[in-house]
Design a protein that fits this description.
Layout lengths: L1 H37 L6 H20 L1 H11 L6 H19 L2 H24 L2 H22 L6 H9 L5 H24 L15 H15 L8 E3 L5 E5 L2 E6 L6 H19 L16 H15 L3 H14 L1 H4 L4 H8 L16 H17 L7 H13 L25 H20 L3 H6 L4 H10 L9 H9 L6 H15 L4
Parallel strand pairs: 1-3
Antiparallel strand pairs: 2-3
Helix pairs in contact: 1-2, 1-3, 3-4, 5-6, 6-7, 8-15, 8-21, 9-10, 10-11, 11-17, 15-16, 15-17, 17-21
The structure holds zinc ion.
Zinc ion binds next to helix 10 and helix 11.
Length: 508
């Protein structure tokens, strides 16, 4: 027995070290990608693409290696392995199973086609010409269908296999009623706020906000959130993002616009929320699934909670507004806190997803979800996309794009084959509302904490309830564990009601 245990321990140590090698290769790739988006000179692009492709391939090879399969099998057959090790093995097996099911020739073809698709998408968007993009997009869809079939989808539909890549366990059958309810909730709010006579003074946000002070302000907020700058960085990039190479190196970027206050600060808080998740994993599990995010939806719930539930709350700005006024005296002198708060929470249907407010944002996602689903069920074809996109924009948001660059061509996701990714954003909003409803029960003086700028208890709550577990639970288990029920859009509806009814002086 002793011998058996020791052999077991040895093999599982070997397993962890094999998993860490894969993680390190991916992290090395992520460092290169971070550099590419921040400091790399433009001519470095070609070599960088090669370096990234090589590291991706090496990581993929290691994940699919026979030896790893054997180690996983051996460790999962252990009778007395701890719960943590069991979870570690289960999740690592999940990753490997998905990876080995897809033939390497298909992996290569997808990666090459997406490389072309990305370049063509950039050109098509610039020229505002979907027809340029359609042939290669059609090819990407075909290849992703093949991938879905290779992975398998049980009794479900091919699109499920793609959803599962971003939100493990999610299926169309499960998401459809959630999405339908969210659409109903959201359209009601959009309608009521559009009909309100109260309008926010959004011009306040378009005054001059010097960049240096914006940066200073961003750092101040991040520190209050408990973001560890010895285990992270804040830089600027064209598209804000967060990335992580280890529990102790989780970085964020933001972008600054001197003439728009919202851009930098809310991107900083949003990405900071992502980074706090990564900084909140347990160091001892670094490089294993127990120090990884459960899903993109859960990841997004962290950023949305900080950005919207905390970052756009009146209580928080009671603390930060006087500080902002000191930093931006020209723009904010004479501005009332209430007007500022209303302005940063304006609900306004718009064409571009990334510029959307927290209410209309969901409708942008629902349009993409419905189109992707129809595309993968064969109900519609790639060439139908522009018209259907515009029709849905008109139906859900009341506005119709005049050109494809502000419609179907606006997102990068399809060009890299990221079908199934969009729902994560919406799920993030829903999870965030459900977390914060329960967090408020646990942290009795929640509002008071915000008005005092004391955000550490919020971070700690997230650390304890969500971050420290890594992938020990899946999303469905975690939400059940914390809130005692499955994901329920009603929480999001309540959150919107409590916030936007008084702001717009409306009822729905
Ligand atoms: Zn995000």
């Amino acid at each position: 027995m002793v011998r058996y245990k020791e052999a077991m321990k040895l093999n599982c140590t070997e397993l962890v070290s094999a998993l860490r090698d894969i993680y390190d290769l991916r992290s090395a790739r992520a460092v290169l990608e971070w550099d590419q988006s921040t400091y790399m000179p433009p001519k470095g692009n070609d070599a960088r693409a090669r370096q990234i492709a090589l590291l991706s391939e090496l990581a993929h090879q290691k994940l699919c290696a026979e030896k790893l399969g054997e180690l996983l099998l051996y460790c999962s057959s252990g009778v007395d392995i701890s719960d943590d090790d069991q979870a570690l093995v289960r999740e690592a097996r999940r990753d490997r199973d998905r990876a080995v099911k897809v033939p390497s020739s298909l992996v290569r073809e997808i990666s090459e086609t997406c490389g072309q698709a990305h370049a063509i998408w950039i050109e098509a968007r610039k020229k505002n010409n979907f027809k340029l993009y359609a042939p290669v997009l059609k090819k990407v869809v075909e290849l992703k269908k093949q991938e879905a079939h290779a992975i398998g989808f049980g009794q479900g539909v091919p699109y499920d296999a793609l959803l599962d890549g971003f939100e493990p366990g999610a299926t169309v059958k499960m998401l459809d009623p959630i999405i339908a309810e969210t659409r109903e909730i959201t359209t009601r709010v959009v309608e009521a706020t559009s009909n309100s006579r109260r309008k926010p003074k959004i011009r306040i946000l378009r005054r001059k906000y010097p960049l240096k002070q914006q940066e200073q302000f961003g750092f101040a907020v991040l520190l209050k959130m408990g973001y560890d700058l010895d285990a992270g960085r804040l830089d600027s990039a064209v598209h804000p993002f967060s990335t992580s190479f280890d529990v102790e190196d989780s970085r964020i970027t933001t972008r600054y616009d001197e003439r728009y206050f919202n851009d930098a600060i809310f991107s900083t808080i949003h990405e900071g929320g992502h980074a706090l998740y990564e900084q909140g994993f347990q160091k001892k599990y670094s490089g294993t699934p127990l120090a990884e995010a459960i899903s993109m939806g859960i990841h997004e719930s962290q950023s949305r909670l900080w950005e919207n539930q905390v970052g756009r709350s009146l209580q928080l700005w009671k603390y930060f507004f006087p500080k902002a006024r000191k930093l931006f005296p020209q723009a904010l002198s004479g501005v009332k806190l209430e007007d500022f708060y209303f302005a940063i929470n304006a609900v306004q249907p718009s064409l571009i997803r990334v510029d959307a407010d927290e209410v209309t944002y969901n409708l942008h996602i629902i349009i993409r979800y419905e189109l992707e689903q129809a595309l993968f069920s064969g109900e519609i074809q790639v060439q139908d996309l522009p018209k259907l996109w515009n029709d849905k924009m008109k139906a859900y948001l009341g506005i119709r794009p005049r050109k494809d660059s502000e419609g179907v061509l606006q997102d990068i996701h399809w060009s890299f084959g990221g079908f199934g990714y969009f729902p994560s954003y919406l799920l993030g909003n829903l999870y965030a509302a459900q977390w914060s409803a329960f967090m408020k029960k646990d942290l009795k003086k929640f509002d008071q904490l915000l008005t005092q700028g004391n955000l550490v208890p919020i971070k700690k709550w997230l650390n304890e309830n969500i971050h420290q577990h890594g992938r020990r639970y899946n999303a469905q288990q975690l939400i059940m564990k914390i809130t005692g029920e499955a994901l329920n859009p009603e929480y999001f509806g309540n959150y919107l009601r409590d916030k936007f009814q008084p702001l717009y002086d409306v009822k729905w």
